[in-house]
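Reviewers of the previous submission asked for a worked example of the structure-prediction workflow described in the proposal, so we include one complete record here. The input consisted solely of the amino acid sequence. No template or homolog information was supplied to the procedure at any stage.
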Amino acid sequence: MVRKKNRDQKKQTKLYIIEAAVVFALVIGLTVYAMIRSASLVVNEKKAVEIGDETFSVADVNYFYYSFFDSYCKEYEEYLPYMFDRSKPLKTQEYEDGRSWFSYFLDETVDSMANIMGAVKAAREEGFALSETGEADIRDYLDGIRSVAENNGTDADSYVAGIYGADMDLERYRELMEYSWLAKEYSEYKEQSYTYSDGEIEKYYQEHSGHYTYADYERLYFKACDHDEEPTEEQKAAAEEQARAVLARVEKGETLKAVSEEYPDAAYYATEDAYYSEGYSYGDWLFVEDRREGDSTVIDDGKGYYVMVFHSRSRREYATVNVRDILFAVDTSDLDTSSADYSTKRDQRFEDSCKQAEEIYEEWTTGGATEELFASLADEHSSTSGREGGLYEKLVKDTLDSSVEHWCFDEARKPGDCEVVYGEDGFHLLYFVQADRPVWMQEVESDLRAEDMQSWSDGLASSVNVRRYEKALERAAGSLS
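From that input alone, the workflow returned the following structure tokens.
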């Protein structure tokens, strides 16, 4: 299912750097392997960090360091050229206030390790064990490492030692993975354990209503100068004069949009779902409690003047939805878009995707057309991994493929509806589970849960004693450092 980013997506806590190291080991190329191997074979300090009763070697630290570094680079990929040079040692590049990027990543890594081991400790005390699925995933990843090692002409122990350090072997690698997986599963269990009554949600909403209401407004901007310049008094006076002339006409009954057509150099904008942000000079004006329909004003932002017209403010009352999805993905990345038969080949792949979806739909209908059967078919056939039974919960508008979204939020939709739907990424077989809480309630609940999880996460590191051995830690990260 295509899901677009929205403003409510939250960054994961340090507990969730967990699986990246495994992926890193599986996809690492031979050239990178050789580069790290040549730099790290001599690393064999057995005591770099002590966390609780567990001692971690430099090789162990590398397991977490590389995962954090890899995750960070993926998250901030478009900004990396402005942050540090990956071709140069991180110790030679300043992060801030004289602190190097190596030091930043190392400190974050050790903090993450403390959080993970804190979660492991809490899980064990509660009797929470790694799931069978988690154990199976670890076995699969280890088999993958053995395969990659064989393809690189070595054995698995030598392969992971070559990446992480001489103290690493596949058995230790498995132990670190189990810590990571257990921490992940326990934190997910903990997150779901927090529940909130409607009264608690309403109370939090009233205390933070500005964050959950959306404004319908128009604006017309008269700039006094270019963004990278400072306006003169004359320029500001001219821009303000135009803005106030427009305001006077709006206050007499003309619409801002109609008036804006007489000012082609001014920027007109209108929206129905603006959310509060301290970064905008007009944010406080839009979201002040006593703002009323038709209110208008002129606001100075330092570089020019906004003519503002307020229409309404509301919270998102429509219901979120829960659906199950079986995606039959279409990949056209290997096709030559300039070839004469590109469209034919692309269309054939979508036809094949549609045929697959219809075949599974037929299997579902003849098999009893139950939600349980659909979930089983999703686990077996969907191109999307990591969604048990293909389940997506609490979906909101403007986050999905347009065709999928139209189907999911159709007012006539009812539990049990199932249909093959075209998507930009291939055909989907969709099953409608139910409508859920209104969006604003889900937003509030999500923030309440995030606050509780952050407090819980903050307490994990303090639940275990951490002792760093700085000379050993300076040897971490191989050639990256």
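Residues 2-13, 15-23, 28-43 have pLDDT under 50 and may be disordered. We consider this example representative of the routine output the project will generate in years two and three.
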